[in-house]
C-alpha cells in the first residue's frame, strides 16, 4: 500500500495571485469580449484588474440584465388576464410594480456609481451607448450619462429605449426626451435609436446624423413630427420607422433636399404614404398594412420590399386595398429589385393588369403566397415587367382547402406589347393542381427561359430586406409527374438549358 504524503498548506504570504499575474494584453483581450456589466464586475477579481481601463466598444445599461426571471413570465400572464382570480391578480400587479421600482433604483444607482468612479475622472472610450429603462421622472443621471458619453468618451451611436411600466396610472411620467444642450455634442451623434421617446427638439442641429431609428412612437404623435424628420435632417441617409403611431393616417414626404437612401416603414399606423420628393432614395421597405403607396419623385429607387397581410376579419368584407395599382401604379421606372408578400386567408388582390409597366425590373420574389391563392398575382407582375430576368415564387403550406378561381389566361394588349425576357423561374411549393396552367403560360410565352426549378418543398432565406436565396428541401417526384412536366416543357418554342425537379 503506497504511503500517504502530507501536503503542507501554503501561508497567506505564499498564495499566488494568478489572475493578477496574467499579461496586461491578455486581460485587455478578456475584458473586450465581455459585456458592460460583466466587464465592470471583474474589478472585484484582483486589484490589478481594477486598475486596467475597460476599453469597450459599447456601453450597455439595460434593466433586462438585472430583472428577475419571474418578471417577464408574470407580465406575460397578466397580459392574457391570468390568473382569473382578481385578488391574486392584484397581488401579482403589486409585485410587478415593486420589482420595476426596485430595478429602476438599482439602475440609477449603478449609473451614478459608474459616473462617479475615480472621482468622475475615469478615462473611457467607446463608440456606442445603449440604454434601456422603465418610465421614470428621475432622468437626471440618464441625461448626465448621455452627455458624458457623447461629449467626453467619443460615443457616436446612441440608443435609448424606454419600457412602459406594466401598471399605468394617471400620474405617469412624460415621455423621455433626449437632451443634448450643446451643439458640439449634437454634431457628434451619427446614429440615433429612440424607442418610446419623444423626437428631440432642434433635430436640424444634429448635423452629423446619418442613421435614425424611431420605434414605438405614441399614437398621439402629430404627423408633422415625422414630416420634419425628412425635411430637417438633411444629412440623414437611413431612416427606420417601426411600430410608430400617428394622429393622422396620411404621411406626405416632401423633402427635395433630403439625402435619405434607405427608408423602412414597419408596423406603423399610416394608411397612405406619399413619397412626393425623396431624390436620393434607393431602398424602400413598406412592411405594414398601408392602403395606398404613392410614388412621386424618387428617381434613384431600385430596391423595394412590399409586405402586406389581410386579417381574418376581412373574410366577409373586402379590404380597403384590393388592387395592385394602389401599390405599384405610380412606381418609378428605375425599380430593379422587388420583393412582394401579399398574404392573407384568401386572395384579396384583384386580377387586373398594372397600367404602369415596371420597365427596369430584373429580379422579383413573390413570397409566402398562400396555397389557396392561384398564380394570377405573379403572372400579372410578369406581364408588367418586360426586362424581368429572375422570378422566384414561394407558395406557403396551408391547411385551407384551395379555392377555385376563374383565372383569366386570355391574351391582353399589355401582354402583347411587353414580350418577356425571363431567363430563370424558381417555384417553391409547386403543385400540378394549381400551377400547371401558369407553367404552360411561362414556357410558351417566355422564349428566353433557360433555367426552370420546380420544388415541392423549400423556403426563402432572406439576406436583409432586399436580397434572398431559395433553400431546397428534397422531395421525391413520381415518374408520372416527371413525364407530365417534361412533356409540357417540350411543347414550348425552345428547349431548356436546365430543369430541376425537387
Overview of the molecule:
The protein is of the alpha/beta class and 502 residues long. 26% of the residues lie in helices and 24% in strands. The chain is built from 13 helices and 22 strands. The strands form 4 sheets. Strands 1-2-3-5-7-8-10-12-14-15-16-17-18-19-22 form a 15-stranded parallel sheet. The longest helix is centred in the first third of the chain and has 30 residues, at 86-115. The model is unreliable at 402-417 (pLDDT under 50).
Please outline what is shown here.
This protein is 26% helix and 24% strand.
With strands numbered from the N-terminus, the spatial order across the biggest sheet is: 1-2-3-5-7-8-10-12-14-15-16-17-18-19-22
Number of strands: 22
| Spatial gap, N to C terminus | 70 Å
Helix content: 25-40%
Q: Indicate the proportion of strand residues.
A: 15-25%
Shape descriptor reads elongated
Structural class: alpha/beta
The chain-level mean pLDDT equals 81
Count of DSSP H/I helices? 13
Give the C-alpha Rg.
30 Å
User: Strand count, sense and closure of the main sheet?
Assistant: 15 strands, parallel
Low-confidence stretches: 402-417
Amino acid at each position: 500500500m503506497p504511503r500517504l504524503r502530507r501536503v503542507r498548506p501554503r501561508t497567506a504570504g505564499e498564495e499566488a495571485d494568478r489572475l493578477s499575474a496574467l499579461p496586461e494584453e491578455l486581460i485587455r483581450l478578456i475584458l473586450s469580449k465581455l459585456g458592460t456589466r460583466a466587464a465592470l464586475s471583474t474589478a472585484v477579481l484582483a486589484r490589478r484588474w481594477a486598475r486596467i481601463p475597460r476599453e469597450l466598444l459599447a456601453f450597455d445599461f439595460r434593466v433586462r440584465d438585472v430583472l428577475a426571471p419571474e418578471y417577464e413570465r408574470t407580465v406575460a400572464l397578466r397580459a392574457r388576464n391570468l390568473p382569473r382570480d382578481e385578488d391574486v391578480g392584484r397581488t401579482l400587479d403589486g409585485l410587478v410594480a415593486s420589482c420595476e421600482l426596485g430595478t429602476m433604483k438599482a439602475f440609477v444607482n449603478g449609473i451614478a456609481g459608474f459616473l462617479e468612479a475615480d472621482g468622475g475622472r475615469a478615462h473611457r472610450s467607446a463608440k456606442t451607448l445603449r440604454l434601456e429603462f422603465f418610465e421614470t421622472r428621475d432622468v437626471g443621471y440618464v441625461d448626465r450619462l448621455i452627455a458624458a458619453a457623447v461629449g467626453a468618451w467619443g460615443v457616436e451611436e446612441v440608443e435609448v429605449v424606454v419600457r412602459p411600466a406594466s401598471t399605468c396610472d394617471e400620474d405617469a411620467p412624460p415621455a423621455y426626451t433626449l437632451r443634448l444642450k450643446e451643439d458640439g455634442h449634437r454634431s457628434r451623434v451619427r446614429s440615433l435609436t429612440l424607442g418610446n421617446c419623444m423626437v428631440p427638439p432642434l433635430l436640424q442641429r444634429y448635423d452629423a446624423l446619418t442613421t435614425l431609428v424611431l420605434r414605438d412612437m405614441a399614437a398621439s404623435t402629430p404627423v408633422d413630427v415625422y414630416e420634419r424628420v425628412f425635411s430637417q435632417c438633411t444629412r440623414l441617409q437611413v431612416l427606420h420607422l417601426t411600430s410608430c403611431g400617428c394622429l393622422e393616417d396620411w404621411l406626405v414626404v416632401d423633402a427635395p433636399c433630403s439625402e435619405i437612401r434607405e427608408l423602412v416603414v414597419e408596423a406603423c399606423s399610416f394608411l397612405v404614404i406619399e413619397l412626393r420628393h425623396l431624390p436620393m432614395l434607393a431602398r424602400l421597405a413598406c412592411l405594414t398594412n398601408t392602403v395606398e403607396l404613392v410614388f412621386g419623385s424618387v428617381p434613384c429607387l431600385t430596391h423595394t420590399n412590399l409586405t402586406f397581410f389581410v386579417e381574418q376579419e376581412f373574410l366577409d368584407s373586402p379590404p380597403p386595398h384590393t388592387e395592385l395599382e394602389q401599390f405599384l401604379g405610380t412606381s418609378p421606372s428605375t425599380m430593379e429589385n422587388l420583393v412582394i408578400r401579399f398574404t392573407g386567408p384568401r386572395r384579396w388582390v384583384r386580377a387586373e393588369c398594372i397600367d404602369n409597366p415596371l420597365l427596369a425590373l430584373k429580379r422579383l420574389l413573390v413570397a409566402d403566397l398562400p396555397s389557396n391563392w392561384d398564380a394570377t398575382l405573379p403572372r400579372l407582375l410578369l406581364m408588367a415587367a418586360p426586362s424581368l430576368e429572375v422570378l422566384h415564387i414561394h407558395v406557403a403550406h396551408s391547411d385551407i382547402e384551395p379555392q377555385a378561381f376563374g383565372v383569366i389566361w386570355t391574351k391582353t394588349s399589355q401582354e402583347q406589347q411587353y414580350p418577356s425576357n425571363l431567363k430563370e423561374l424558381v417555384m417553391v411549393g409547386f403543385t400540378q393542381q394549381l400551377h400547371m396552367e401558369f407553367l404552360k403560360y411561362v414556357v410558351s410565352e417566355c422564349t428566353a427561359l433557360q433555367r426552370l426549378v420546380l420544388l415541392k418543398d423549400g423556403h426563402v432565406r432572406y439576406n436583409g430586406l432586399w436580397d434572398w436565396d431559395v433553400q431546397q428541401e428534397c422531395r421525391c417526384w413520381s415518374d408520372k409527374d416527371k413525364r407530365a412536366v417534361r412533356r409540357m416543357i417540350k411543347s414550348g418554342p425552345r428547349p431548356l438549358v436546365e430543369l430541376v425537379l425537387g
